[in-house]
Structure formats: C-alpha cells, structure tokens
C-alpha cells in the first residue's frame, strides 16, 4: 500500500487532465461516447480539487452541442445507438451544478431515446438499431449509469420504474454473457443466434475482450452510486460486481500487473498489455474499495495494477505533458467490414497513443486512487 500511496501523491489525475486540456481543447466535432469518458474523469478531478478549469472544460464542450432549448446538435435519437447516451452523464453533472433548464431538457431527450429504444424479448436494450437482438458489455456502461442518475432527479414513481429497468439491464447482460468456466463475460450476446460470431447454443461471442470487461466493471460500480440502498436488486448487482472483479483478477499479469487485450491469453503470440482495460479495472477496484464494496485485501491488486499502468503506459513528453500509450483504438462485433470476434480479430485492431477511451479511464482511475488517500 505504501507504493500506491506514493503514486497517489504524485497527482497523475491532474497532470493528465491538464495534458488533455492542452492537447484536446475542443471535443466538439462529433457527439461521441469517448468524450463522455473524459468528461466523467474531469468531473471527479473537479470534485477532488475544486479547480474551476475542469468544470469550465466540461461546460464549454457540452455547450457546443446543447442549445438554449435543450436540443443536442449532431445527435439523432432515431439512430437508437446506446453509445449516444454516454455524454448524458456530463449533461446531468452540469444540470446538478447550474440548475439550468437547458440541461434538464437535453437529458430528457436522451431519456426519451430509452423509452422507445429497441429491446430483446426479456427487455434488454439492443446495442444499436443496426445491431439487432444484441447486448454488448459496452452498452451497459453507455446507458445504465446515466439512466440511474437521471432517475434520482425526477419524481418517485417514474424513478422506481427506471431503477428496476437499470437493474434489469445489468442482470440480463451478466446472465447471458457470463462464462461458467472462467467467470469472465463474453463481449457480446445475440439472442437470435443469427450473427456469424454468435455461438449457436449460447448466442455469445467467442472471446473475452479486455475493454468490454472494463466497460462492464465501470458500469456496475457507477450504477451503484445511484441505485437506492434498499432496492431489491442491489445485492444481486453487488454480487455480480464482486464475481466479475474476482474473475478478472485471475488474469492480472503477474509480471506487469496489467491486463492483456484478450484477457485470458496472457503471453499468447500477438496479444499485448492494453492500457484502457487496465485503467478501467484499476478504477473499478479503487472505487469498489473506497465505497466498501470490496475489502482492503484488494488494495494489493490495485497497487500492482496502478504501478503497472504508470510504468508501462504513461510517459511525459518534451513539454511536460503526459501521454497514455498502448490503447486499442476500437473493437466491435459484426458490421461492415465484418468483425468476427476471433482472437486474431482483436489483436489486429490498431494500437494508439492518447485514445480518449483510455485517457478517460486513466483520469477516472487516478482520481479515485487519490481519493483513497485523502
């Protein structure tokens, strides 16, 4: 724990946040989910430091999309893309801080998407309209924490209905994607079993992609912020979280302390330590420990993970700004060209420096590790 405390004192969250502001002053070109991961990290750093520049960074960028009537530029509800809900977390943050009506209206617009978003037979949100009958681990992070937080800001009757729906999303996704052998969760599940990547019996995709598992871990620990203490499914969701963390820890690389792109194939030819998944697991561990969902025995794994992240992926450039190396740029299932979910597919996607999905996860992890020692 001593080494973790020393790293926490170095305030990597602030250094990386300042580097992001310098390198990416405007995240305004598209309404895309990775910006929302960065904004969430900035929100935590603002709470830690009370430095207004982090608040202003979120506000300036979100205000480029949200007009005075609460319309969101470059967003289309009719696409029914669950990824497009993620930036709503920043909108809710701004509404809580400012009370401005435009943010409430914009949040309601995203809530309206979920009212009519297509679902599986049991009621799980499809990942996208263009990916019918499918739930992906990623989608739980994109939709559920926003949905749960939104419920805390509205009337009791609708809130109860939403909390039940949020719990249903997590539980359904966990049930259908969990591998009984490893305890890990497959990236996606197709209830129709029509996709070429889908197992004809289970409907699951064939591999355990690190970042998908990371999205799922972050989603659950974030949903628990808002799900009422007395909700009938809270203990079930806590159990899913603990089981997921225990399964993931079995595949923490003993040498580096981080996780590989395809989690269960450490050292296999072509596989590599991947930064975004490692940061997401570190965040889930740090927040889980801080909130009391995980006991202090997990600190050792967190220490090894964060040390590995700092020494393996983080570097300082000639201007004193931080970079995050080793981030898988993107991975998905299906589409065109077709992504088959094979091992070979996951290791073939480009690896990038400062991909914002990884950077945002690093901000979140660092902010919560620093909270552990406040």
From TrEMBL:
Q: Which domain of life is it from?
A: Bacteria
Keyword Hydrolase attributed: yes
Q: Which SUPFAM superfamilies match?
A: Six-hairpin glycosidases
**Molecular function terms in GO for this entry?**
hydrolase activity
What biological-process terms (Gene Ontology) are attached? carbohydrate metabolic process
InterPro entries in the cross-refs: 6-hairpin_glycosidase_sf (IPR008928), 6hp_glycosidase-like_sf (IPR012341), Glyco_hydro_88 (IPR010905), PolySaccharide_Degr_Enz (IPR052043)
| Keyword hit for Hydrolase | yes
* Keywords for this protein: Hydrolase
Q: What is this protein called?
A: Glycosyl hydrolase family 88
Q: What is the lineage of its organism?
A: Bacteria, Bacillati, Bacillota, Bacillota incertae sedis, Caldicellulosiruptorales
């Amino acid at each position: 724990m001593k080494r973790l405390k020393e790293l926490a004192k170095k305030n990597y969250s602030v250094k990386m946040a300042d580097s992001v502001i310098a390198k990416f002053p405007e995240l305004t070109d598209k309404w895309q989910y990775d910006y929302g991961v960065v904004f969430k990290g900035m929100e935590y750093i603002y709470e830690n430091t009370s430095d207004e520049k982090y608040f202003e960074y979120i506000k300036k960028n979100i205000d480029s999309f949200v007009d005075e009537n609460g319309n969101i530029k470059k967003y289309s509800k009719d696409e029914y893309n669950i990824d497009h809900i993620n930036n709503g977390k920043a909108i809710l943050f701004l509404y809580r801080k400012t009370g401005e009506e435009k943010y409430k209206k914009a949040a309601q617009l995203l809530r309206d998407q979920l009212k009519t978003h297509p679902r599986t037979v049991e009621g799980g949100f499809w990942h996208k309209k263009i990916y019918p009958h499918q739930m992906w681990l990623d989608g739980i992070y994109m939709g559920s924490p926003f949905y749960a937080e939104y419920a805390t800001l509205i009337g009791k009757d609708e809130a109860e209905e939403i909390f039940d729906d949020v719990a249903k999303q997590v539980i359904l996704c966990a049930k259908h994607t969990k591998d009984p052998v490893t305890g890990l969760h497959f990236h996606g599940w197709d209830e129709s079993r029509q996709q070429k990547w889908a197992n004809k019996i289970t409907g699951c995709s064939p591999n355990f992609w690190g970042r998908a598992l990371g999205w799922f871990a972050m989603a659950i620990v974030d949903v628990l912020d808002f799900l009422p203490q007395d909700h009938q499914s809270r203990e079930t969701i806590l159990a899913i979280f603990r089981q997921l963390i225990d399964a993931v820890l079995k595949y923490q690389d003993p040498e580096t302390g981080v996780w590989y792109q395809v989690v269960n194939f450490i050292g296999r030819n072509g596989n590599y330590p991947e930064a975004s998944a490692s940061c997401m697991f570190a965040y889930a561990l740090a927040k889980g420990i801080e909130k009391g969902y995980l006991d202090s025995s997990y600190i050792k794994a967190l220490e090894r993970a964060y040390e590995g992240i700092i020494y393996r992926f983080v570097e300082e450039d000639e201007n004193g700004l931080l970079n995050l190396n080793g981030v898988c740029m993107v991975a998905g299932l299906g589409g065109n060209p077709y992504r088959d979910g094979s091992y070979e597919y996951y290791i073939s996607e480009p690896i990038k420096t400062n991909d914002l999905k990884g950077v945002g996860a690093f901000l979140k992890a660092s902010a919560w590790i620093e909270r552990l020692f406040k």
